[in-house]
């Protein structure tokens, strides 16, 4: 609690030197046309720091990277999230930059301070048995159910983003080649294999359901809403949540989403021997570093298996 009290002193007076520094920052932000919300955030962050600095008898010229690291450590110990600490440090970088530009300081001590690393959340992944329970729960008794079965079979079979699913046209599916042509990010086209269950589900949907949903407004869209328009990404997420709640043995605590199916697609490929470069191409990642998150998923799974199984773990 000491650090929290140290970083929050709303009633403490501000010295003349720091009051002048905050006034210069406010003036510069106004001159640059910064929004009122931005100016307020900088004022709050700056005011919090200068009270801490005054409490430690630090004038603007006395602040160095070590002092800023102490301040940031106090924020972290007080329970501030890395994103919040990073934002506050960015505010201080602007504060000291202003002092340098006005000749009050020779250099910016915050330039040598790096923002705290954000904790990387591993993607939520369903087990293969959970994916099967989810997909097999979707019946083939209505046009919308047939559509949803085809939609989510394809999402998992080919690892497509929600945005890519809704942009598919009827002609995007190549049944003879057992693949789908996808328009990905940056208008880049890629060809992705589609498994037999997905292709069969799409064929049933095209034969029995899409004609009932189609209208003059449908154009060539593959997946249609009940009003005949192209599905939206929010439609896809909403329908998946509906089926996830009904599927036995599927935990919804992690948030079953189209992206969870995409993560599951990649992780299951990796677990069964696919190389990372191939998974990168299938997902349409521009950089292999983006795909490498799945190696951390696999590593976490192996560590868990080791901890649960090894007698001397």
UniProtKB/TrEMBL annotation:
<dbReference type="InterPro" id="IPR010998">
    <property type="entry name" value="Integrase_recombinase_N"/>
</dbReference>
<keyword id="KW-0131">Cell cycle</keyword>
<dbReference type="InterPro" id="IPR013762">
    <property type="entry name" value="Integrase-like_cat_sf"/>
</dbReference>
<dbReference type="InterPro" id="IPR023009">
    <property type="entry name" value="Tyrosine_recombinase_XerC/XerD"/>
</dbReference>
<feature type="active site">
    <location>
        <position position="259"/>
    </location>
</feature>
<dbReference type="InterPro" id="IPR050090">
    <property type="entry name" value="Tyrosine_recombinase_XerCD"/>
</dbReference>
<dbReference type="InterPro" id="IPR004107">
    <property type="entry name" value="Integrase_SAM-like_N"/>
</dbReference>
<dbReference type="GO" id="GO:0005737">
    <property type="term" value="C:cytoplasm"/>
</dbReference>
<keyword id="KW-0233">DNA recombination</keyword>
<keyword id="KW-0963">Cytoplasm</keyword>
<feature type="active site" description="O-(3'-phospho-DNA)-tyrosine intermediate">
    <location>
        <position position="294"/>
    </location>
</feature>
<dbReference type="InterPro" id="IPR044068">
    <property type="entry name" value="CB"/>
</dbReference>
<keyword id="KW-0229">DNA integration</keyword>
<dbReference type="Pfam" id="PF00589">
    <property type="entry name" value="Phage_integrase"/>
</dbReference>
<feature type="active site">
    <location>
        <position position="285"/>
    </location>
</feature>
<feature type="active site">
    <location>
        <position position="185"/>
    </location>
</feature>
<comment type="function">
    <text>Site-specific tyrosine recombinase, which acts by catalyzing the cutting and rejoining of the recombining DNA molecules. The XerC-XerD complex is essential to convert dimers of the bacterial chromosome into monomers to permit their segregation at cell division. It also contributes to the segregational stability of plasmids.</text>
</comment>
<dbReference type="GO" id="GO:0009037">
    <property type="term" value="F:tyrosine-based site-specific recombinase activity"/>
</dbReference>
<dbReference type="GO" id="GO:0003677">
    <property type="term" value="F:DNA binding"/>
</dbReference>
<comment type="similarity">
    <text>Belongs to the 'phage' integrase family. XerC subfamily.</text>
</comment>
<dbReference type="InterPro" id="IPR011010">
    <property type="entry name" value="DNA_brk_join_enz"/>
</dbReference>
<feature type="domain" description="Tyr recombinase">
    <location>
        <begin position="121"/>
        <end position="307"/>
    </location>
</feature>
<dbReference type="GO" id="GO:0007059">
    <property type="term" value="P:chromosome segregation"/>
</dbReference>
<feature type="active site">
    <location>
        <position position="161"/>
    </location>
</feature>
<keyword id="KW-0159">Chromosome partition</keyword>
<feature type="domain" description="Core-binding (CB)">
    <location>
        <begin position="9"/>
        <end position="100"/>
    </location>
</feature>
<dbReference type="InterPro" id="IPR002104">
    <property type="entry name" value="Integrase_catalytic"/>
</dbReference>
<protein>
    <recommendedName>
        <fullName>Tyrosine recombinase XerC</fullName>
    </recommendedName>
</protein>
<dbReference type="Pfam" id="PF02899">
    <property type="entry name" value="Phage_int_SAM_1"/>
</dbReference>
<keyword id="KW-0132">Cell division</keyword>
<keyword id="KW-0238">DNA-binding</keyword>
<dbReference type="GO" id="GO:0006313">
    <property type="term" value="P:DNA transposition"/>
</dbReference>
<comment type="subunit">
    <text>Forms a cyclic heterotetrameric complex composed of two molecules of XerC and two molecules of XerD.</text>
</comment>
<feature type="active site">
    <location>
        <position position="262"/>
    </location>
</feature>
<dbReference type="GO" id="GO:0051301">
    <property type="term" value="P:cell division"/>
</dbReference>
